[in-house]
Amino acid sequence: MSLKPIADIGEFGLIEKITAICAPTIKPASGVVEGIGDDCAVYEHSPSSVQVATTDILAEHQHFDLLTTPPHHLGSKAISVNVSDICAMNALPRYALISIAMPQNTPVEMVESLYNGMAHAAELYGTALVGGDTSSSAAGIVISVTLIGETSKEKLALRSGASPGDLICVTGALGGAAAGLKVLLREKRIMMDHVQNGEPYNRDIMNNLEEYTEAIQHQLLPSARVDIIEFFHKHQIVPTSMIDISDGLSSDLRHICQQSMVGARIEEGRIPILSQARHIADEFQQDALDYALGGGEDYQLLFTLKPDNFQAIVEHRDITVIGKITPKEEGMTLNDIYGMQIDMKEIRGFDHFT
For residue 330, which of 38, 51, 69, 129 sits 20 to 30 Å off, Cα-Cα? Predict the structure, then answer.
C-alpha cells in the first residue's frame, strides 16, 4: 500500500481531512457556534455572550531559531500570536494555558526569560496565565499556547460574513515580518560561515542590525491589535468578516473568500507596506509586495465592512481600505500599479507542509 505524504496535500488539505473526521462530534445541542475553520472555536457562554478559544504551536527550527530569537522575545510572541486570533473574532483575551516541551539540558535561566516574556505580554493584553503543562523533548523546544477570549453574540465576527460590495480593510503596515526574517536568516548564514571557518563572530547580532530594527521587531515582537478591537467596541463597529494576517495577505483573504463564498478585488497602490520592508526588499533585489502578499506573520487584522461604516473608520490613521468584495464568479484579483489585473489564486502564503 502506497502512503501519501502530507506534503502532497499541504496544510490546508490536511485541515480539510481533520475537519471531516471531527465534524460529527459536534452535536446540535453542544452550544458550539463555530468549530474548525475560523481563527477560533466559538461556543455559547451565556444567553448574550460567547467564548472564543484558540491554540497555536511554536516549534524550534520550524517557527523560531534560538540563534536569532531571544527567549524573552519568543515568550512575548507566543502570547501575541494567540491574542491576535482572539482579536480576529472581534473578541478580547481573558485566559491562557501554556504547555512547553524542552530538552533536559535547557538552562533554567532561559526558561525563566521565556516565561517573563509571556508574562509581560499577558499583562499588556489583560490576559491571565492560569496553567498549562511541561514535558521533556528529545529535540528542540515546542511551545503550545491555548487562549480563551470573550465577546457578545452581536459583536462576534467570523470569516463567513462578507458580501459583494463590502469594503476590504487592513490595519497597520504589512511586509515587515517577512523582511525582518530575511535579514535574520542572512545574519545567521554569516554567523555559521564564521563558525565553520573558525573565524571570530560577534554573537550579539541585534546590536549589528540597528538599521533594520523596525522590520526585525515586526518579526520577533509582533503586537496583537487589541487596540483595534477596543476601537470597534467603543464605536459599535462589527466587521462583516475578519481574520488576522498570519500566512500572508493573499492566503488570508482567500480564507475569507472561501468561507464567505465571494470574490475580492484589491488595489496594489492601496496596500500599506512598511517603509523599511521596501528598503530591505531592494537590498535583496526582491519585491516588497511579495512580502506583504505571501510573507505572513504580520499579525495585523484583515476585515470587511459594509460601505455604510466607512465614516466610522475613515479618520483612524491605522486602518486602510484596500479593495472591495465581489461576486464569487469574479475570483480574487489584484489591480497592480500599471493597471494590469492579476489573478491572486497563484499567490500563496506560508504552508507548514509544502
Answer: 38
**Which residues partner with 32 through β-bridges?**
43
| Per-residue model confidence as pLDDT tens digits over 295-352 | 999 999 999 999 999 999 998 999 999 999 999 999 999 999 998 999 987 776 655 5
Summarize pLDDT for 162-218 with one digit per residue, the tens.
999 999 999 999 999 999 999 999 988 887 876 677 776 665 544 568 889 999 999
What's the gap between Cα 72 and its chain centre? 19
Three cell numbers, residue 5: 505524504
Query: Could you tell me the three cell numbers for 104?
Result: 533536559
| Cell numbers representing residue 243 in the block | 481574520
Cα–Cα distances in angstroms (integers) from residue 178 to residues 130, 185, 222, 265, 290, in the given order: 32, 11, 12, 23, 9
Q: Residue 289 corresponds to which amino acid?
A: L
pLDDT digits (tens, 9 = 90+) for 171-185: 999 999 999 999 999
Would you say 227 and 299 are in contact if contact means Cβ atoms under 8 Å apart?
no
Instruction: In whole angstroms, give the CA distance from residue 171 to residue 156.
Output: 18
Model pTM score = 0.92
Q: Are strands 319-326 and 341-343 parallel, antiparallel or unpaired?
A: unpaired
Cα separation, 351 vs 7, in Å, equals 10
* Contact indicator for 89, 149 with CB cutoff of 8 Å: yes
